[in-house]
Amino acid sequence: MAHKDPHSCWTFGSAQITHIDFDLTADFKTRTLSGSAVYRFSKPLENSLELDTRIIDVKGVFSGDGTSRKLEWSLGDETYLGRVLTIRRTENLTALRIEFATSPESAALQWLDPEQTAGKRHPYMYSQCQAILARSVFPCQDTPAVRFTYSVTLRVPADLTAVMAADRIEVKHEDGFTVCRFKMRHPIPSYLFALAIGNITSEKIGSCSSVFAEPEMVQAAAWEFSEVDAMIEGAEAVFGEYIWDNFNLLVMPPSFPYGGMENPTLTFLTPTLMAGDRSLVAVVAHELAHSWTGNLVTNATWEDFWLNEGWTVYAERRILERLYGIEFTHLQAVSGRNDLRAAFKNFGEDSPYTKLKTDLTGIDPDEVFSSVPYEKGFLFIVAVERAVGREAFDGFIRSYIRNFKFSSITTSQFVEYLTKQLPDAAKKVDLNRWIHEPGLPDSAPEFASGMIDDVRNVRVRWDQGERDLRAAVAHWNTHQIVLFLEELPTRLPEADCAALDNLWVAQTKNCEILLPFYCIAAGSSYRKVFPAIRDFLSTIGRGKYLKPLYRTLHENPETRALARELFEEYKDRYHSVGRLAVQRILEK
Ligand code: BES
Ligand code: ZN
């Protein structure tokens, strides 16, 4: 099935990278990764080859067929996609070698000063390649439609170590370096290439899982994420065997721009999940779920992103349902519905970015990142499940994964398969309405649970003026508190802010609770907590928090200047993804 990925120079049907052998050295003084990569291809190349790059310093290209002939190359004009590397006279080659170095400004890599780590004594570096940032680490066919295996030899400073989303097969000390060797034996798309370098240690937490983190936090992390075995068991019951051998976790420094990133065998996690009470582990279930929906069955382009994320939110909630019950996951679904409403409001109800299948020609996927593919995608999958019943749907899930594993599919391939396997669903659910039209169908699934009723009842009492609610909310879990806070108006009188502060905030470090409260405080000019907001924004780089908080500060005329001031002061501490996201908000 022919399709074009608007974000890559690779064209469907042309020779694909099948394997890469990297030999790299990380230099923290120049903030570069440099060395070479040997590429192997699925078939002999034509007379020229194009690869995606972005601010990569290409030093030389050589034929890799044993002759090691120097090849001519050039870089195209700079666009939002980077620069296309064209290599000439490649006819009949099946391998070639590129020598290159990354730039200190590589969009994927963040090089951290020791102050930005938990230990404060060692520097740190990590990558974040999804969606189209892998090309700023190495020249590649930076499309989720191309998969390759790889090996890496990585030299890092002697007092540090390296981890990757791959098996670490050797660590040795040589010539003043720590030398680590890695192997990824399963074919992965470029966006799942990942590495981190720092003072990192590990602790075993499950039958195939260890948590990696700086020594200062590894014990707490091991406790927080100790439910992994139960999660894997729950996921396997629904989706089939876990094939990636290990499911390890890496707790990142706080500037990491996402809650989690499903790098295969080594999920990257924000340290803000460490609430001390295991209340935020849904993100772990989510990244684990990507092991099937995303990493095994992958969206063919970023226009099909809902296939990755909608399915994964569905899978995440199936796992959590087994662990914590349906009351809990329905509460999550209702919170997700609130996120979706906010996204519709930000884009405008009729915006094409509220469609599941998007047209991203000329648009950076990061620029339109939102809860739409997540929560509208989730609702769509639930609509299909409810149309055919869970038993039939579970059969479909298994066959879907089995049929498409290790491949990348488009939305229309999914629709075709669904229509064939579950003809009833295709009759009962308006597939076209869900996938190709903006907003939500009126028939979208609804969710009820006692936990939600509890929150809504207290809200009625709040609206009637009652403020002494401590007893009424004493038994609430974190997500009930979050639901209550996120459904309040963001502009409240000072006394109400103080009441909320007393009720929940003064005694918590839980970022999920802090965020909606800080948004209320920002929208209400509740100055008492501004120092705390400043602290928060000075260390935490998670987009889910930065974006709403900066947006609220920016939208309140009384705090607009503060938003700019804080951003100017802290922007260099954020990963490029987070920095650009906030910049776009402040420019509006
Ligand atoms: N793969 C995403 C993160 C991502 C998406 C990175 C697009 C770059 C581009 C990851 O699986 C994710 O969805 N993380 C969420 C957590 C989840 C529980 C919704 C996050 O970071 O908040
Ligand atoms: Zn995800």
Structure notes:
This protein has about 600 residues and is an alpha+beta fold. Helix content is about 40%, strand content about 20%. An eight-stranded mixed beta sheet has the order 5-4-8-2-1-11-14-13, with no helix packed on it. Strands 16-17-18-20-19 form a five-stranded mixed beta sheet, with helices on one face. A hairpin with a 6-residue loop joins β4 and β5 (about 70). The chain is globular and about 80 Å long. The relative contact order is 0.08. It binds ligand BES and zinc ion. Ligand BES binds near residues 260, 286 and 287.
Strand content: 15-25%
Question: What is the alpha-carbon Rg in Å?
Answer: 24 Å
Sequence stretches where pLDDT stays below 50 over 5 or more residues: none
| General form | globular
Strand order of the largest sheet: 5-4-8-2-1-11-14-13
Structural class by sheet pairing and helices:
alpha+beta
The domain count comes to: 4
* Bound small molecules, deduplicated: ligand BES, zinc ion
Could you tell me how far the N terminus lies from the C terminus, measured between alpha carbons in angstroms? 40 Å
CATH topology of the largest domain: Immunoglobulin-like
Short description:
With about 600 residues, the protein is α+β, with helices and mostly antiparallel strands. It folds into four domains: about 15-200, Immunoglobulin-like; about 200-290, Zincin-like; about 300-450, Orthogonal Bundle (Neutral Protease, domain 2), CATH 1.10.390; about 480-585, Alpha Horseshoe (Serine Threonine Protein Phosphatase 5, Tetratricopeptide repeat), CATH 1.25.40. The radius of gyration is 24 Å and the shape is globular.
